[in-house]
Design brief:
Two copies of one chain form a homodimer.
Chain A: H1 12-26, H2 33-39, H3 54-66, H4 81-98, H5 102-108, H6 114-129, H7 134-157, H8 165-187
Helix pairs in contact in A: 1-2, 1-3, 4-6, 4-7, 6-7, 7-8
The first copy, chain A, binds a DNA duplex (30 and 30 nucleotides) through loops.
Amino acid sequence: MDKRGRRRTLSEHVILDAALALLAEGGADAVTVRGIAARVGVAPNAVYTYFPDKAAVVRGLAEHLLGRVNHDRFTDPSQPWRDRVRALALELRAELLAHPGSVHLMLGHPPDGPHTRAVRETLLATLADAGLGPADAADASYLVNVHILGSVAFEVAAPPGGPDVGTTRFRWGLDRLLDGLAAHVATGPPR
Amino acid sequence: MDKRGRRRTLSEHVILDAALALLAEGGADAVTVRGIAARVGVAPNAVYTYFPDKAAVVRGLAEHLLGRVNHDRFTDPSQPWRDRVRALALELRAELLAHPGSVHLMLGHPPDGPHTRAVRETLLATLADAGLGPADAADASYLVNVHILGSVAFEVAAPPGGPDVGTTRFRWGLDRLLDGLAAHVATGPPR
DNA sequence: CCTCAATTCTGTACGGCGTACAATAACTGT
DNA sequence: ACAGTTATTGTACGCCGTACAGAATTGAGG
């Protein structure tokens, strides 16, 4: 393996870290190739050594965020499936909400890296534990994801009045949704 | 009222029409002030006579789209509330889906014009008919809106495999959700 | 009719964006 | 010492939103 060539001053990691910092400071619009480069003290196009284009950076950023949730906490089968889904949904929401603008990034460029898939599979497995068949579990997982991303998108776009009314609404909707899923399990697959 | 000044070659309406055409042709990224101006044969900054900035144009565009749904069709009290909510949700989804990119516009700049409010109030009234109290109806309306916008956003970002699997998933999720709402009505407000 | 104020649109310009292309600099194995 | 390899830079292009000043065109009042 050749180790020739100029010494690296950059890496995927520091680029994503800079992008994350910009996201935290100035929202989605602040995540810019030139901004990232400036923050790490490098020429703008140096970024293109590590990512083919900006969309790839953004996808990597979304992956980076998703990597922060510890899904092992939600796979404990001794806990009721409802509690596990609720906990996972709340955690994901919190993570997204902690970085305003990340939702638009994820909605604009849906990530599909290992972390993304891991989260999806955790959710899928939990719903299977609930008694849903594979097809229903897939639909249910989609439904929960839609609720999480949709809620956060709504919330950052138009922050509701009170301080925690966003959380309240999220929980309320999630509970109705889980009620519907539970009823579906009890009834069995549509006849 | 003074009617002096150069004759108008522009209007809010033709600007929004041009924006809509661009949205249909090239997605959200194609909606650009310069593109609109070029399409109507005018200098880019002429647009700023009618809108203070691009965000206002985009908000107007979202309003324009929402104005296309005829909510009177969904207020017929002889129909079951579930059917009415379903029909409204499907109609809104279809309208958004017909203009790829409109979701990101609405998610980025939430509109709040008369049409937007009208839709929201129709939905609210229908949910009140279902037997939900004012607070619950508001939460439920929020929930349904989240499901519609979230679903469409997901769908345009990552088109599912089959041709109508998007519609199927949307309906499936909506039905679980309505099940949950119906159960909440039967149970009564949380004790 | 003629002037003038009002209004719309144009000309021009600035700074910022993503990114393509060629040149350079810094390293390593021979 | 040299050649090969690679990360980074320099420069440039075409796009974007939009600010500012001025030209064009009109209706109203004398």
